[in-house]
Design goal:
Number of strands: 12
CATH architecture: 2-Layer Sandwich
Radius of gyration: 18 Å
Strand content: 15-25%
Structural class: alpha/beta
CATH topology: Endonuclease, Chain A
Largest sheet: 8 strands, mixed
Number of helices: 8
Helix content: 25-40%
Strand order of the largest sheet: 3-10-9-8-4-5-7-11
CATH superfamily: Endonuclease Chain A
Order of helices and strands: EEEHEHHEEHHEEEEHEHEH
CATH class: Alpha Beta
Length: about 230
């Protein structure tokens, strides 16, 4: 159980609501520890995390499900809308993790504990992944939204817009800044961000087509990230 000290009282994170936390309007890596000050408390307290991200990695999923007890225990849910380009290893592993096939041979007898943990989470509906692809030539080829939404058990929400792909990774990757909005301070803006995510999730957003991962894979929509090939 993850705990914090609040007014000299030890409190489990899952018993907290976001309103009990001191959530700032902005976090910057030159002034704040983004992981300790923002991401760790929000991840540990939420019951659902919604994320829009350009490049999804298995490392991101591993971080969430191995560090945060509420995800590892099945108490919190993850919904992701990602772009259609992946590093080769990530795409191969995601194909195993997110396969709905019941054929044991197609699961390739997965023995890696982390991959099995993620497969189990997917099979019980704890991880949901959809792929977003721009559907008109006037738009850039890649989906590049960088929105994150945390929901707590009291119906409060914390929304952030980040300059990075994976701001909550355990390793620092240069300068980062995160703009934050809360349901109790910025009700209208947070409501709009949540509505936009739900429209995107339901494939009701103009210029963007959204597919289940398996459908996108079977239809040949998923691609290797060419920049990754050039850099390696």
């Amino acid at each position: 159980m993850i705990i914090i000290i609040l007014n000299s009282v030890i409190v489990p994170f899952l018993s907290l609501s976001f309103k009990m936390m001191d959530v700032k309007e902005e976090y910057r890596s030159d002034e704040d520890n983004l992981i300790n000050d923002f991401f760790y408390p929000c991840f540990s307290t939420c019951v659902e995390y919604n994320r829009c991200i350009e490049f999804l990695s298995v490392g991101m999923l591993k971080t969430i499900f191995t560090i945060y007890d509420n995800f590892g225990s099945g108490a919190a849910k993850l919904k992701i809308v990602a772009g259609h380009k992946f590093r080769p290893t990530d795409l191969d592993l995601l194909s195993i993790i997110l396969s709905k096939s019941r054929n044991p041979f197609e699961k390739r007898n997965v023995k890696n504990r982390t991959i099995q943990l993620l497969r189990d989470a997917f099979e019980r509906g704890q991880i949901e992944l959809k792929i977003a692809i721009a559907n008109e030539e006037l738009l850039e080829e890649s989906f590049s939204d960088k929105l994150g939404i945390f929901h707590d058990r009291d119906g409060q929400a914390v929304v952030y817009v980040s300059t990075s792909r994976e701001s909550f990774a355990t390793r620092k990757k240069g300068f980062e800044s995160v703009d934050v909005y809360t349901s109790w301070r910025d009700e209208t803006r947070v409501k709009k961000k949540i509505e936009n995510f739900e429209r995107l999730w339901a494939n009701k957003m103009e210029h963007i087509d959204v597919y289940d991962f398996e459908h996108a894979q079977q239809s040949g929509f998923l691609k290797y990230w060419s920049d990754w090939v050039l850099r390696h």
